[in-house]
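During the no-cost extension, the postdoctoral fellow (Dr. R.K.) reprocessed legacy sequence entries with the updated structure-token encoder. One reprocessed record is reproduced below for audit purposes.
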Amino acid sequence: MEYLKAFLVGGIICTIGQILIDKTKLTPARILVTFVVAGVFLQLLGLYQPIVDFGGAGATVPLTGFGYNLCRGAQKAVSEHGLLGIFTGGFTSAAGGIAAALIFGFLVSIIFKANSKK
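Re-encoded structure tokens follow.
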């Protein structure tokens, strides 16, 4: 049942992204930024945590989950370290995922030869 819930939540988030691509003139970069910012604001309003509790990885893997993770880290750091936590909390909470993306991206670039399109 967890897989079905994750699939449904992730699918809904992806469907929203596809609708934005098809029906608006927003560039993909702006849509990606919109998703991250939406994750932050939904977490600030207390609306994203119930989605994460229901959908699990379906809610935390998409870009809205990255915004949620940044906001959650900042909220935790502010409660522990005060105002300085605004600047450090998001980076601390997302550091593992960002480091993994960089390391795996580097390893893939070593393994596979990129062909430039001319």
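The chain has a mean pLDDT of 90. The chain has one domain: 2-111. The remaining legacy entries will be reprocessed before the final report is submitted.
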